[in-house]
Amino acid sequence: MPEKQWGMAIDLSRCVGCHTCAVACKVENNLPDGTWWNRTTTEGGPAQDAPSGVYPKVKREYVTIACQHCANPACTRVCPVGATYKREEDGVVFQDYGKCIGCRMCIAACPYTGVRSFNWEEPKYAMDYSVGDIDAPAHQKHVVEKCTLCAHRLARGEEPACANACPADARHFGDLNDAESEVSRLVLEREHRRLLPEKGTEPSIYYLV
To answer: Is 1 a member of any domain?
Structure first.
């Protein structure tokens, strides 16, 4: 078990589906055109903001999805070169662009659809200059990418951009191995769920209900 296990508790009762977390992530990490590491979905269907249920009994619940930074990640077990690995110091599931050979085995093994992306071509951007943090890693052709929990911000003692930017205070970040942290307290005290628990990956992202 790592000394720390960074994780997040996302309060579904406070999330308003504003996409601020997704946009903050895209800007902070200077993501290429068409690439999103964080996305906002609803349980009603593929269309944005789709409600679930049948009129007049309908409801809309937003669920934001990114890499789950699993305690038992499926992706790390299949990577033939160790490019995707779990960091010993903090439990972050990380991607080493320098080692990645573009085989995309990690994408196939991950049960959480759409949390990884692959750069088929040289990354392109709407702006002709970088808008991301100076410490965010540069994007490369023919590598797999995903959420890093803003590892560059963690190195400076800051929380991920998505948690920092959430206007509804729905995202709570911290050390799950610290019983006194806010995120641990919320998981202990609040009813919650994790995505696809039957897969045995033990995600570090909890959804408070």
So the answer is: no
